[in-house]
Design brief:
Shape: flat
Structural class: mainly alpha
Radius of gyration: 37 Å
Strand order of the largest sheet: 1-2
Largest sheet: 2 strands, antiparallel
Strand content: under 5%
Distance between the termini: 87 Å
Number of strands: 2
Number of helices: 2
Helix content: 40-55%
Order of helices and strands: HHEE
């Protein structure tokens, strides 16, 4: 039994690319392109609907936010949140590191370093 022509033959990449481009051009010639007037009309329709949907969802978000805010305020019995004074700063606790109070730098507390004197170079 003989294999089909071109089945096991190596493909030439240049020929494959030109065949692809020719077939793509042939397909694009079959396309019915819209007129300039139709393109402007459809684009305007898409933009208009997009703006309307954005306005709708913005209004919905604002309304639901307002409803939830009113519900929470009526539940707490307050109409406005009272400002809270800043709490005292909390020093983070990291095992093995101490914080220098003046500079705020970290230094290891579990490592002992012996002072060394530089050795003269010959």
């Amino acid at each position: 039994m003989k294999p089909a022509k071109g089945f096991l033959e190596p493909m030439n990449p240049v020929k494959a690319l030109t065949d692809y481009l020719r077939s793509a051009k042939a397909e694009l010639e079959k396309v019915t392109w819209p007129s300039r007037k139709d393109t402007i009309r459809y684009s305007s329709l898409v933009l208009g609907v997009s703006v309307l949907v954005a306005v709708f969802f913005a209004g919905l978000d604002f309304g639901l936010n307002r409803i939830v805010t009113l519900q929470l305020e009526s539940r707490d019995g307050t109409t406005q949140q009272q400002p809270v004074a800043d709490p005292a700063p909390v020093t983070p606790v990291v095992p093995g590191l101490d914080i220098e109070p003046q500079s705020g730098d970290f230094r290891p507390s579990d490592v002992q370093v012996e002072p060394t004197t530089p050795t003269p170079q010959p």
